[in-house]
Amino acid sequence: MGKAASIEVRELTEGDLSWVLPMDEGAFSLAWKRETFLEELTGRLAHYYGVFEDGTPIAYGGFWLVAGEAQIMRLAVDPGRRGEKKGLFLVASLIEKARDLGAEEVTLEVREPAENGPIIMQTVGKTPCSCAFSLLICKKGT
């Protein structure tokens, strides 16, 4: 039997942009610029985290926390790791982090043609649709 992988979730820093920027470019048709990420990483409302497996970055995501509501703003998984449910692990980690910071609700807006939007919806018990939607994925007490 092989050794189990070590998974770590931690806040992103400016030093992480060396891998975040290429991952973002591979995940989004409108990738964010370095300056945009720097504004997010230093903003008082924004909270961004990376997922690392045995020290190797495999995903990142973040949310804004305003008045008890965390709005997930960005999610990306290394293209070579897609299909391994790392994105679902990332969403669950963001929910946990948001709750730790006092969020009562966590929402995620998915825009077509987000190929994994239906997977997220099915996982949280929602019916997929072929349009943009905002999804309440977690409410305090649930």
Describe this protein's structure:
With 142 residues, the protein is of the alpha+beta class. The protein has helices spanning 17-27, 34-42, 86-100, 117-123; strands at residues 7-11, 46-53, 56-66, 69-77, 105-110, 133-139. Strands 1-2-3-4-5-6 form a 6-stranded mixed beta sheet, sandwiched between helices. A hairpin with a 2-residue loop joins strand 3 (56-66) and strand 4 (69-77). The model is unreliable at 117-134 (pLDDT under 50).
Structural class by helix and strand composition: alpha+beta
First-residue to last-residue Cα separation: 37 Å
Biggest pleated-sheet summary: 6 strands, mixed
| Biggest sheet strand line-up | 1-2-3-4-5-6
Order of helices and strands: EHHEEEHEHE
Share in β-strands: 25-35%
**Dominant shape:** globular
Total of helices: 4
Radius of gyration: 15 Å
Tell me the helix content.
25-40%
- The overall average pLDDT, rounded, is 82
Poorly predicted runs are: 117-134
Number of strands: 6
Helix/strand layout:
Elements: E1 7-11, H1 17-27, H2 34-42, E2 46-53, E3 56-66, E4 69-77, H3 86-100, E5 105-110, H4 117-123, E6 133-139
Parallel strand pairs: 4-5
Antiparallel strand pairs: 1-2, 2-3, 3-4, 5-6
